[in-house]
Amino acid sequence: MKILLTGATGYIGKRLLPVLLNKGNYVICCVRDKKRFKIPESFKNQIEIIETDFFDLSSLQKIPKDIDAAYYLMHSMSTSTNYETIEIIVAQNFRHALGRTKVKHIIYLSGIVNEENLSKHLNSRKAVENELSKGKYNFTTLRAGIIIGSGSASFEIIRDLVEKLPIMVAPKWLNTKCQPIGVSDVIALLNKSLLNADTYNKSFDIGGPDILSYKEMLLGFAQVRKLRRWIYIIPVMTPKLSSYWLYFIASTSYKLASALVSSMKVEVICRNTNINNVLDIHPVGYKMAIEKTLSAIENNQIISSWKDSLISGRLNSKFSEFINVPTNGCYLDKRSKTLIDRKFTIQKIWEIGGEHGWYYATFLWKIRGFIDNLFGGVGLRRGRTHPNNISPGDVIDFWRVLYAEKDEGRLLLFAEMKLPGEAWLEFRIKDKQLYQTATFRPKGLWGRLYWFSVYPFHGIVFRGLLNSLAKE
Asked: Which of 27, 56, 202, 434 has an alpha carbon within 20 to 30 A of 355's alpha carbon?
C-alpha cells in the first residue's frame, strides 16, 4: 500500500513510520524540511520524502494522486496563541489536497472531547475533526488522552515533578480524572485501524484500563520508582500561576505548560472503547506503561521525543535558512587545538550536553540556563533525546542540532535560548585540528551590549570546553 504520513518528524510519526515500513508499505513522508529527515538505509526503497507546507497550497501539488491511505498527525498547540485558526486552515488545505487523490481512508489522532466545556486546545482538536470529516473519503478519528511513553510530554512532566519534588504543593486540577494510555498501544491502534472497514467513518476513544486523577498518576509513578512523595492540593492557585509552576519545575515551554494546564481542568475519560474489541487490542494499565517506558529509557531506546519538535524552541523556519552560518555583522569566538585522539574527541562531541554536561565550568552553563528560564526560555531542562546519538533536528539543552556528520567530524548547533540576536556553535575537525567557533549575530544595540557583557565568560567556558574535547 502507498501511505501518506504527515507529522513524520513528530513524536507519534517517528514511531509509526517503522511499523508501517515493516509491513511492506510504501510511505510518503510529508516534512517541512528534508534536512531534518534521515532515511534509514534498510528502508530507502520504501520511503519517499516530500517537502510540504500545509499553509502553502502550491507545495501540496507534490502529494501523489495514487495514495491508498493517509495519517493526519499535525498539531500546532504551542506554536502560537492563535493556533485554533492555524489548525483549521491546515485541516482545510489538507482536505482539499487529499480530495484530488484516490485516497480511501484517513486516520486522525485527536484528543478525548467528551465534556461540554472544553479547553481551547481540545476545542481546536474537535474543530479539526469536524473539518476533516467533510472529505469524500472514509475517515476515522482515534481520540487519546494522556499518552505515556519515553519522550512524551506527559511522561516527561510526570517524571520531572515526581523525581524533583519530594513534597508538592499543587493546584486543584491535580484532582481531575483522566484515562492514560501507553504509546505502544496508540501505535498498535493506529496501525491496525488502517483500511479496516469496521473503523470507517467512526470516532473512538482510546485509553488504558485505569481511570486516575493526575495526583494518583504522580503517586503511581512514585511507587514504580520506589520513591516516597507527598502531594497537598491548594485551591487558590490561578491558571497563570499553575502554568508558571509547571514551567519552572518540568521540562516544558511556557506556551505548552499554559495549554496543558487549560486542558488538565477537563476530564478526559473514554466513553466509547469499542475499538479494543474491533481490533482485538487490549491496552496495558498505567503502571505497566510506566515500567515499559522506564525500561526503554534505561536501554536507550527512545525513538522520539516531544522536545525535538521545532515548536519547543525558537527555530520555526527551515534549517537551510540557518545552516550557512553568517559572517557579516557577526561577532566570533574562534579557537582551535591540535588533537591527540580524533575518535575520542568526536565521541565526546557527540555526547555533549544533557547528563554529560559541558565538560568545563558546567555551573556557568547552568546559571545561563537558569537565566533563560527566568525570561521564559527553554533553559537546560530539555537535555537530550539519546545519550550518544545525534541527528539534525534533535535538541541538546538550549541548542538545536542543524548539522551532524560523525564521519566528517562536524556538528553545528543553533541557540534556542532567549537572546537579543542569533547564535551558532560549531565543532569541526580537519586534519589533526579541532576548530570550535561561536558566532553571534546581534539584533540592535542590546545585542551588542549582550555580547560584550558575556565575552569575559566566553574566555573561561569556551577555552575550557575546547581543551576538554581535544585532550586524550
From this structure: 434
For residue 193, is pLDDT > 90? yes
Kindly state the cell numbers that stand for 440. 553571534
Q: Which of 18-32, 183-197, 211-225, 321-335 has the lowest mean pLDDT?
A: 321-335
| Spatial separation of the C-alpha atoms in residues 35 and 216, rounded to whole Å | 42
Domains of the chain in start order, with CATH, are: 2-307 (3.40.50.720), 313-470 (3.30.530.20)
Alpha helices in 99-229 (DSSP H): 120-132, 153-164, 183-193, 214-224
Cα gap 21→42, rounded to integer Å: 10
Range 216-241 average pLDDT: 85
Residue 158 vs residues 154, 173, 264, 298, 333: alpha-carbon distances, Å: 6, 14, 13, 17, 39
Instruction: Quote the pTM value.
Output: 0.75
SS3 label, residue 458 = helix
Report the interhelical angle of 254-264 vs 239-249 (nearest 10°).
Answer: 130
Per residue in 313-324, pLDDT (tens digit) is 555 545 555 567
The set of residues, in sequence order, having a beta carbon less than 8 Å from that of 372 and lying 6+ positions away, is 378, 379, 380, 398, 417, 418
Identify the three-state secondary structure at position 122: helix
